[in-house]
Specification:
By secondary structure, the chain is an alpha+beta fold. It has helices at 2-8, 14-24, 32-41, 44-58, 64-71, 75-85, 369-374, and strands spanning 145-150, 160-163, 167-169, 179-184, 190-195, 205-214, 223-230, 237-244, 259-268, 274-280, 286-294, 305-311, 314-322, 334-342, 396-408. It folds into 2 domains: 2-94, no CATH class; 145-344 and 396-408, Jelly Rolls. Helix 2 packs parallel to helix 4, helix 3 (32-41) packs antiparallel against helix 4 and helix 4 packs across helix 6 (75-85). The longest helix has 15 residues, at 44-58.
């Protein structure tokens, strides 16, 4: 396998590639981190393999990887690597009417590492540490130091990315006169603020607070990203706070819904879908999100991390005493507020991909393999490929404001 990787990969990317492959057979959830990070490293072979494995195991894939693969016509490589690695994987989840279900939250039991501590050093608590605060009015808790504030009133620093087609605008603000503004008119649209990798330094805990406003006309489908942390090292670890599988518990996911489930989704060295809280996605109002993250000690056996998400000052969803980042160091992590939106074309007749006869009645029925085959990524909200089964929906705006990042350093 290493020989095959070297044949297609960059010469110094093998460690990175192998780390990803180790996780491919056990992955859950979306693979947006593959598209974002493997693109930088040109490891198309690994990305192809992960995409193929996930599709065959779960009948579900969030297409970012598939889009990238098909643009580069790497079908031969898909066949080569998937035929090698997928052998023995059960195909029960490929049934056309079976929707993948989130895994139960379980600690890793294999290996011989030290037992996990029974209680985190910092108690969970029900209240955020920066609730109601903004860059013009905040107080750091004892033991914490400031990493960054951003209210979008000035110019963009080189250490940040502001991804919104309107940039810093005066259309709507939480405080001051400006916020970051962007539109969601199609699948894979992306509105976000990022503190680039290399700016947080080392830390034992990190904390992100920000406010967002999603227009009230917004409706949701496969994914709507709230926040993200991405390790910069050779061992990939991506942690996404993500509204996924929009729709009520019964009958299940549906198109253009107001209800969704907020998951904590580690992806990479440690891959699992954690927690999960179903709720109406907040729209038409400013919402404060606070995220308190303690990385687990490096190693797959260490269940001493936590990840807590607060909404408007109250604990909304959390994962306690868990392995979140596997073998990856999270020092100098990229920190992100906001993110991508996905609305996938679901079909029941792959590889025929015939519209309208093959169109799925709702998300999760069938699969999304036709997206890559037919080049259907980035479908417009106003004219979905499978309308009227998958009805049109209005484009909407998202605003991000008053970002605060702080950290705690042990010892």
């Amino acid at each position: 396998m290493k020989k095959k990787l070297r044949e297609f990969d960059g010469q110094d990317e093998n460690v990175f590639a192998i780390a990803i492959l180790k996780q491919a057979l056990g992955g859950y959830g979306n693979i947006s981190f593959c598209y974002q990070e493997l693109r930088k490293r040109h490891t198309t072979c690994v990305l192809s393999c992960i995409s193929c494995i996930k599709r065959r195991r779960y009948g579900h894939d969030i297409t970012h990887g598939g889009q990238y693969i098909m643009k580069r016509r790497s079908n031969v490589l898909i066949a080569l690597l998937c035929s090698t690695l997928v052998a023995g994987i059960p195909f029960g989840s490929m049934a056309a009417d079976k929707i993948p279900t989130p895994p139960s939250i379980k600690g890793i039991t294999s290996g011989t590492g030290s037992p996990a501590p029974s209680v985190p050093a910092t108690p969970p608590g029900n209240d955020g540490l920066l609730s109601g605060m903004n860059p013009g009015n905040y107080a750091l808790p004892s033991g914490w130091s400031l990493v960054r504030t951003q209210d979008f009133e000035g110019t963009q620093p080189a250490s940040e990315s502001w991804d919104g087609n309107e940039g810093a605008s005066t259309t709507r603000s939480h405080s001051g006169s400006k916020s970051l503004e962007g539109d969601y008119p199609w699948d894979s649209a992306d509105v976000k603020w990022q503190l680039k990798e290399g700016n947080t330094g080392s830390f034992s805990e990190i904390y992100l607070s920000f406010y967002e406003y999603t227009e009230s006309k917004a409706r949701f489908n496969d994914e709507y990203c709230v926040a993200r942390f991405l390790a910069p090292g050779a061992i990939v670890q991506d942690i996404v706070v993500d509204w996924m599988w929009a729709g009520p518990e019964q009958p299940g996911p549906n198109f253009n819904e107001q209800i969704s489930t907020l998951f904590i989704v580690p992806q990479g060295s440690r891959t699992k879908r954690l927690a999960g809280q179903m709720a109406t996605v907040p729209v038409g109002q400013w919402v404060q999100w606070e995220i308190h993250y303690r990385p687990s000690t490096i190693g797959l056996e260490n269940n001493d991390g936590f990840f807590r998400v607060y909404k408007n000052g109250s604990l909304f969803v959390s994962a306690e005493n868990v392995n979140i980042n596997g073998e990856a160091s999270m020092a100098n992590t990229m920190v992100q507020a906001g993110g991508f939106y996905t609305k996938i074309v679901w079909m029941t007749d792959y590889p025929t991909c015939s519209i309208p006869s093959g169109c799925s009645p709702r998300p999760g029925v069938g699969n999304d393999l036709c997206v890559a085959k037919m080049g259907w990524w980035g479908q417009s909200f106003s004219s979905p490929k499978c309308a009227p089964k998958d009805p049109p929906l209005p484009s909407f705006k998202r605003f991000i404001d008053d970002v605060i990042v702080m950290k705690k350093t042990a010892g």
